[in-house]
Amino acid sequence: MLANRVREFTTTVGTGDITLGGSIAGHVRFTDAFVPGDSVIYVIEDGENYEIGTGTFQIGTGVQAGGILQRTDISETLNAGSLTKTAAQPLDLSGQARIYCAATAKFLLERDLTTDVIREVTPGAGVTVGSVLLKDGTVAASAVDITGVLTADGIKNGATFQARTSAGSAEA
C-alpha cells in the first residue's frame, strides 16, 4: 500500500522489526495512514545507506506504541557503497534512520494489477478465463488472481490476461 507524506524517525538498531518513532515535521505517521496488517512499500535511509522493501504494519505496545514495520521483503539495499538487488538483506540500522512510504521503481514497473471488480461484456454472463468462470461474484475455482489490461470500463477488449489458481494458471 501507498500513502502520501508518510515519513518517520526510527531509533531501531539492528536488522529486526522497525520501531516507528514519530513523524518528521510536515509529514504524517504510519499509524495515521495504515491499519494493522497492511503491506507497505517503504524506504529506509540511514546515513549514506538505504533499504527498499515491503513490510507489514503493526501496532505495538510500550515503546513501540507508535507502530512497528515488520520487514517482509527486502528488494534493494545500498550499504557502504555496494548496491544489492538480488538476495538483498536488511540494513543493520544505526538508531538514527528515517523511514518513509514511497512508490518505488519496482512498484511502478513490475506490478501485477490485481482487482476484485470485473465488468462483464454481457451482464449476467460471467467471464471465463481458461477454465475459470467468474460470475455474479462467485468463482468456479479457488484463489484466483487476474492480471491484465484494465480500463475504467473493465477489461479492455482483446487484452491478454492470466488467471492463476491454486491448481495452476490459464491464459486467455
Using only CA atoms, what is the Rg? 20 Å
Helical run tally:
2
Note the main sheet. 7 strands, antiparallel
Q: Uncertain runs with pLDDT below 50, 5 residues or more?
A: 113-122, 142-172
Q: Termini, distance in Å?
A: 28 Å
* Total domain modules: 2
Helix share, percent: under 10%
- Measured by DSSP, the beta-strand proportion falls in 35-45%
Shape: globular
Strand segment count = 17
The helix/strand order is EEEHEEEEEEHEEEEEEEE
Mean pLDDT: 75
- SS class: mainly beta
Q: How is this structure best described in words?
A:
The longest helix has 5 residues, at 105-109. The chain has helices spanning 30-33, 105-109; strands at residues 7-10, 13-14, 18-19, 39-46, 49-58, 68-79, 82-84, 93-94, 97-101, 127-129, 132-135, 138-139, 145-147, 150-151, 154-155, 162-165, 168-171. The protein has 172 residues and is mainly beta. Strand 6 (68-79) and strand 7 (82-84) form a beta hairpin. Strands 1, 3, 4, 5, 6, 7 and 9 form a seven-stranded antiparallel β-sheet that branches. Strands 10-11-12 form a three-stranded antiparallel β-sheet, with no helix packed on it. The two termini are 28 Å apart. It folds into two domains: 7-109; 127-171, no CATH class.
Brief rundown of the structure:
The protein is mostly beta strands and 172 residues long.
Secondary-structure topology with pairs:
Layout: E1 7-10, E2 13-14, E3 18-19, H1 30-33, E4 39-46, E5 49-58, E6 68-79, E7 82-84, E8 93-94, E9 97-101, H2 105-109, E10 127-129, E11 132-135, E12 138-139, E13 145-147, E14 150-151, E15 154-155, E16 162-165, E17 168-171
Antiparallel strand pairs: 1-9, 2-8, 3-6, 4-5, 4-9, 5-6, 6-7, 10-11, 11-12, 13-16, 14-15, 16-17
